[in-house]
Amino acid sequence: TNEGAEDGRINEGAFAHYLPAAPAYLHKLPSHISLRQGVLVRTVAVCLEGLRQLGAEPGRTACIIGAGFLGNVCVQIMRVRGLRVTAVDHDPRRLALLYKYDVDTLSEIDDPGKYDYLVETGGNSEVVSHLAKGSKPGARVLLLGLPLCRLDEAGLQQQTGNGKLVECPWAFQPRSWEEAIRLVGSGRIKLDDHAIEVLPLEAYKDAWAQVERREHPKVLLSISQELKGL
């Protein structure tokens, strides 16, 4: 709770002055994982949980639509697991970060019917509709970027029952967090490209502007000078 709220109300959530959490929801980071990496582990866990539900098998083909942080991590995980991956994004700077992982890149998705698995990370309902209609029978589409509440707005709610669309997970499974920590700690999943700028909390407006201008893939806010090195 935030008992010091000036208006007398109690604010809930991660902006609270005190944030209680049950031990079952806490995961200890090894000392060799920096805070710079640690703040990004949750996103890795989200990707792992989604790909687990997708049931992606080694040797199959996958297309990741959106090469931002979510897409980049999905690409890395799928390559580690032995899938052949194509990444799609309009921004060549994002695609350039993926060449080291031996993946094919496109600025536009050519034919959804070529792939066994498709992962949408940008939250674009039109793209999801295109993937659902254009993918081949038996293919599966993972919705990492599109909230379930928007499926109905996109006219896709009825398609979730046919086994093709896989709902967006929220990484509540402890096994996903534990695997994410192992992959990051071992260096098999690289996060350095996504946390290259650290600013003090007071500079949050500038940080937001930098992200909107796509000057950096990620900008971290430090709450204390003691954490300057992260």
Structure in words:
The chain is of the alpha/beta class. Helices cover 29% and strands 13% of the residues. The protein has seven helices and eight strands. The chain has helices at 35-38, 41-54, 69-80, 92-96, 125-134, 174-186, 204-212; strands at residues 61-65, 84-88, 104-106, 117-120, 140-143, 165-166, 197-200, 219-222. The strands form two sheets. A six-stranded parallel β-sheet has the order 3-2-1-4-5-6, with helices on both faces. Helix 5 links the parallel strand 4 and strand 5. It is globular, with a radius of gyration of 19 Å. It starts with 34 loop residues before the first helix and ends in an 8-residue tail after the last strand.
Strand content: 5-15%
- Distance N terminus to C terminus? 27 Å
Number of helices: 7
Fraction of residues in helix: 25-40%
- Average residue-wise pLDDT: 83
What is the helix/strand order? HHEHEHEEHEEHEHE
**Strand neighbour order, sheet with most strands:** 3-2-1-4-5-6
Based on CA atoms alone, the radius of gyration comes out at 19 Å
Number of strands: 8
SS-based class? alpha/beta
Largest sheet: 6 strands, parallel
Residue windows where pLDDT falls under 50 for at least 5 positions: 1-8
The rough form would be described as: globular
